[in-house]
Amino acid sequence: MQGLLLAEEFAHFLPAGKDKAVKYWDADKFEQLLELNAHQGPVWGLAVSHLGDLVVSCGGDRAIRRWGHKHPSLHFLQSHTC
Predict the structure, then answer these.
(1) Exposed site from 35, 63, 67, 81, fewest CB < 10 Å?
(2) Which domain covers residue 58, as residue numbers?
């Protein structure tokens, strides 16, 4: 695991790791809700907006990806390369 994003006010967490995926978990039930093949390299970091409606991921593929959040899923919005 490269990192862990805790969204306490929304009772969810998103781990970042070498498996190239963004995973979305329900912290109360400890249940994985969604797994996205997000990057072509390890996921280095994640951030969530203060409203919880936007997740940003960055990875070893030098991409920064923006994901829209509509519970219980994430959908791809935009990608930028560094």
Answers:
(1) 81
(2) 3-81
pTM as predicted: 0.71
Per the structure, the count of domains in the chain is: 1
Omega before 15 within 30 of 0, i.e. cis? no
CA 57 remoteness from chain centre: 6
The answer to whether the CB of 39 falls within 8 A of the CB of 61 is yes
CATH number where 26 lies: 2.40.10.480
Render pLDDT for 13-42 as a digit per residue (tens, 0 to 9): 888 888 988 888 888 899 998 888 888 999
Largest CA distance in the chain: 36
